[in-house]
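queue> pop job 88
queue> type: inverse folding (structure -> sequence)
queue> payload:
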């Protein structure tokens, strides 16, 4: 499928797909069409058995500098309700395969919220994260107040949301928002390296494990524990589990097939 605002390479590396946000003149501002294209691309990659991990990136200057304000400026509450733009975000969150955000430059507003819908984050030393919507007379609406609070805690999230202040890559790492910080020229390479560590594992176990971690993030402890146990038992219905344990006993590397 041809896209206008994103570039998609389902074979970027072995079992690794790459999606690049591609509105460089607008600092990859997230308009409705880009988000719809992103949703469709993720659905296609989720259905591609050869893909085991997905990387989303922008460019060195910006991952995404926010939502497209020009597209939103004239809208009223009923317009936004009819557009139902957040349904697209909900679908992105339902992607079954792990998603790594490779971030350089600005990840602000909707860009920061998109980062937080991903499962892991590799950032360049120039990356800046923030929810500056308050400076426009509005607030985050695509999960910013919820996911940021769960990721970094109430006090820091409150400060960022109420003042619009940015967080540096090192501050984001210290706060637990991202996985690692690397020199700018290495941020995509490091994301691929992380993806490779994932793609050698059982696709079945990866899917169930991702589901379980997200359940912990989105729910209370008891509900999460029940969900984890159910998925743990499910792993034992897979051929990958048999292969993984047999290989361990035989002291060799397992060959996982995703079955």
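queue> result:
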């Amino acid at each position: 499928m041809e896209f206008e605002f994103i570039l998609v390479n389902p074979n970027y590396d072995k079992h690794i797909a790459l999606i690049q946000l591609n509105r460089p003149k607008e600092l990859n501002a997230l308009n409705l069409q880009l988000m719809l294209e992103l949703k469709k691309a993720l659905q296609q990659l989720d259905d591609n058995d050869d893909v085991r991990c997905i990387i989303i990136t922008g460019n060195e200057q910006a991952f995404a500098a926010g939502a497209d304000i020009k597209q939103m400026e004239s809208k009223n509450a009923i317009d936004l309700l009819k557009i139902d733009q957040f349904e697209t975000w909900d679908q992105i969150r339902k992607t079954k395969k792990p998603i790594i955000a490779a971030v350089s430059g600005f990840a602000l507003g909707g860009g920061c919220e998109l980062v937080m819908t991903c499962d892991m984050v590799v950032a360049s030393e120039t990356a800046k994260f923030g929810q500056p919507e308050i400076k426009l007379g509005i607030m985050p609406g695509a999960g910013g107040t919820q996911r940021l609070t769960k990721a970094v805690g109430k006090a820091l999230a409150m400060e960022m949301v109420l003042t619009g202040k940015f967080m540096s890559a090192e501050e984001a790492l210290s706060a637990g928002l991202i996985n690692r910080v690397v020199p700018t020229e290495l941020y995509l390479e490091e994301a691929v390296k992380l993806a490779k560590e994932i793609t050698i594992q059982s696709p079945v176990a990866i899917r169930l494990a991702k589901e379980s971690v997200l359940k912990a993030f989105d729910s209370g402890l008891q509900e999460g524990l029940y969900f984890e146990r159910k998925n743990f038992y499910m792993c034992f219905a897979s051929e990958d589990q048999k292969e993984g344990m047999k290989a361990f006993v035989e002291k060799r590397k397992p060959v996982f097939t995703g079955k």
